[in-house]
Amino acid sequence: MRILALIISMFLMAAVMAGVALSTAQAQAVPTPTLTEFVFGETTAGKPVFAPTQILIPQVPMHLVVTFHNNDTMQHTFSINDVNGTEQVTTDLVDPGQNVTVEFTVVSMTQVELTNGTRFTPEAGANGILFYCVPHRGAGMTGQIVLASVPPAAAAEKGILLRAYWIGIIGIAVTLVWVGVTYYVIKSSSRHFVDHSEHVRKGLP
User: Which listed residue, of 10, 83, 163, 190, carries a Cα 20 to 30 Å from 154's Cα?
Assistant: First the structure.
């Protein structure tokens, strides 16, 4: 009986540990979604501009693949600075009719990660992360990466917390069972323990 109780308790503990490992693996396995955008450099009403002037992302983190096409007669860039004014993302000068693609991850609206793993705090615009054309920033050729809506990360985080809650409850239950089994094993192994059947045999209550 003691061996059976120990086997059951060990099985319950293994099940809980497996559940914790599975939940952790699922949380880590969720990939960052990718958004592909095309941005054009052109001249409108005599002024160099980006089209569109905003890149809308539905959530963070978001991996952005931006293809910049120079649809103008002069060179342009698609560039993002950090808060210190250093270029961190740039196409360099793109000739008329050419296009260049850059990739980076918007971890949050205050943090961007490059493909080499380097992270930086981007220069902010009025509503989001500022991007600009190096030779024409002074002429107003700027745009922004804007969070289009409240990110669903809150809901995902709530789900993770809910799983953790239930894992905690199961862990407590298994701990109580383990304590009970341990008590039974210790008691039954004690020389002071007398089985009830022995009492009955001797005519004792």
Answer: 83
